[in-house]
Amino acid sequence: MKVSIVMPVYNAEATVSQALESLTAQTFQPLEIIVVNDGSTDGTFPIIGKAAERNPRITILNRPHRGIVPALNAGLAAASGKYIARMDADDISHPERIAKQVAYLDKFPDTGMVGCRVGFGGDREKQAGYANYVDWINQLVEPEDIALNRFVESPFAHPSVMFRRELVEKFGGYRDGLFPEDYELWLRWMGNGVKVAKVDEVLLDWSDPPNRLSRTDARYRVEAFYQTKAKYLFQWLEKHNPHHPDIIVWGAGRVTRKRVAILNQYELRITQYVDIRPRKIGVPVIQPLELPDPSECFVLPMVGKRGAREIIREFLHKHGFTEGIHCIFAA
User: Fold this and answer.
1) Domain assignment of residue 63, yes or no
2) Quick one: what percent of the chain has pLDDT higher than 70?
3) Which parts of 166-257 are beta strand (E)?
4) How many C-beta atoms lie closer than 10 Å to residue 99's C-beta?
5) What are the E-state strand segments in the chain?
6) Residue 250 counted as domain residue
7) Which residues of 113-122 are buried (b: 16+ CB within 10 A; e: fewer)?
8) Cβ distance 274 to 251 under 8 Å?
9) Distance separating the N- and C-terminal Cα atoms of the chain
10) Residues 267, 165 share a domain
11) pLDDT at 220
12) Which residue range(s) make up the domain with 252?
């Protein structure tokens, strides 16, 4: 089997039929569809059972409820495909999603994982924050853009990805803990040199329900995301910052300094902060125009205010700073 799709489900009776129909309607066939029923207590199991009766390519793993990470890893262990695609029980894959992602991985053997652009399946007014996030990840398509922005936010919609099975064997699968399991996986794989990309088309409708785990589970709090990225950001800086452990942080506000404190546990040395307002915080605060020459420093912009990142990026580029060489953006 060339492609296995792993889909964990938990109490998804309202949406799982459509999700499965979108997979069985894929133009790429045959597919192995592994549905991991994580102890559902509603009508999910009869629904997926009937679907499996109609389609022998659907395999059901029925398990006690233990959470998404054990369910995902059980699905990975059962998958036989060379390529593993993810899917969630409340999303819709467009008919050519699998075919186009397979074609990409076949064409670019140096790419380990490929996602796609996604359609926002929610109310843009009521869920403006998530809608803006979807717009942001949809801008990140090329491998370099994804790599350079991975410390800002998670650059992929989890159910949109397809990856080579060998990555799990080489670098491990999902880890369980107080962190977002998908973001940790991308950062770990990319930290090991895995090249990632996206098909530049909308191939998945990504639902945004009120009970989404990222809204209700402590693993998806902002603090959990930052604790996760801090470890891998430090590892990246060790390899790529020629002035390590010295860095200049752009942004001296309270939130930024709180997050910098997490980085301090890795013994980074913050030599200066950049801010448009003078501050007395125990470390020198300089104005943007007071930045040293790019050859003499490494800058870590960490301003999260909407629109500020673009202004900072334009300033740095104008003054000779190259992302990945003289600076890297985080949030």
Assistant:
1) yes
2) 96
3) 195-207, 246-250
4) 15
5) 3-9, 32-38, 58-63, 83-86, 92-93, 111-121, 162-164, 195-207, 246-250, 269-274, 285-286, 299-301
6) yes
7) bbbbbbbbbb
8) yes
9) 40
10) no
11) 57
12) 240-318
In the structure encoding, which two tokens stand for residue 92, read together? 């819709």
pLDDT band at 124; cut points 50, 70, 90 = confident
Of 128-132, 149-153, 184-188, 213-217, the poorest mean pLDDT is in: 213-217
Residue 130 and residue 209 in contact, taking contact as beta carbons nearer than 8 Å? no
Q: Could you tell me the CA-to-CA distances from 107 to 28, 243, 300, 331 in Å, in that order?
A: 16, 38, 35, 33
Q: How far apart are CA 145 and CA 45, in angstroms?
A: 41
How far is the C-alpha of 287 from the C-alpha of 275, rounded, in Å?
6
Do 248 and 299 touch, CB atoms closer than 8 A? Answer: yes
Phi, psi of 38 (to 5 degrees): -90, 60
Average pLDDT, integer, range 24-48? 97
User: From CA 101, how far away is CA 85, in angstroms rounded?
Assistant: 9
If asked whether residues 161 and 17 sit together in one domain, one would say yes
Alpha carbon distance 226, 32 (integer Å): 35
